[in-house]
Amino acid sequence: MQTKDDNQSGSDSRLQRIKTQILKYEAVQHTAYTDAGGNRIVGILFNLDREDARGEIEALGLSFDEVRNGRTALTDAQVDELFENSINDALQAVRNEVPAFDDLSPERQAILLDMTLTLGVEGVSRFQARLAEIQSGHIDAGTPLIGYRLTALSASGEYDDSQQSEPAEAPEQPEAPEQPDQSSAALKDLADQAFQDNPNECNNSTAQVATAMGYDELSGKLANDQVAYMDANWKEVTAEEARDLANNGELVVAGLANPAGHGHTAIVVPGDGATKPDGNFYPNVQGGASNPAGKSDGTKTAGDVWSVNDRGDVSYYTPKEK
């Protein structure tokens, strides 16, 4: 005879499988960033623009404004607690929208929950054709989660599934989560947003861009610690290579530690760069700073941001391939 505890255990096990499926395709972001739809996101798909966001963040003992602007990073435990609350809320909401939810496989349930976490239940309800595909089985159980893709298309107005007469062909399953757009324009957009959000903190503006591009290792670190981490774990490139990588939309961080004080880091952004009178080439960089000379909206080069005495010692780092 099956007991109430058995039913609860089975329910918990199924929910854990759904959460595991979501975490296979969604990155953990300890520092807030702006997604393709213009929303501020932190943790695992937690939308800081939702109505109850302030209360959820403050319940963790944190300042909502500090988290939203990227100055405070979440710990792993806080990310987990936020995700637990969010997924339970999403579960209740999606059951109201999709009556047959509990009859779906955990993989299809994960797709629906991912969409709900990303778009909200009202946003999900706009995608009736997509919901029909998921419920009917046209989306294969192994299909990767599609929340971010729908967010981007919905925000741009390019996706109107009411015009679909045939189920969309399921994409091939990748080995890793879908990567953000790595065009040079996308990189500059991320750098612009991070500079706007963190005009006075180089470490936070640098970490915000890196996190948005899938590398959250720099979050919660001061500039000196960021440089030390990159020196030990990332690949150092030349100034010319840094320029070329940035012009291809790839992540490169310029940095110089200061053992006697505060170091400085900045994102290398697309641009021609410049050769200074010292004969060295310097790429364009962007990021916040506590002093006006160190700030750059991307029009300055590393040779302008760092002093004449220091600029030749600046190093350039790019993440090693995952």
Question: Brief overview, please?
Answer:
The protein is 44% helix and 13% strand.
Task: Describe this protein's structure.
This protein starts with a helix and ends with a strand. It is built from twelve helices and eleven strands. β1 (29-34) and β2 form a beta hairpin. α4 (76-97) packs across α5. It is an alpha+beta fold and 322 residues long. It has helices at 4-25, 53-58, 64-68, 76-97, 106-125, 128-136, 147-156, 184-197, 202-212, 223-233, 239-247, 302-305; strands at 29-34, 40-43, 46-47, 235-237, 253-256, 264-268, 274-275, 281-282, 284-287, 296-301, 315-318. A six-stranded antiparallel β-sheet has the order 4-11-5-6-9-10. It has a three-stranded antiparallel β-sheet with strand order 1-2-3.
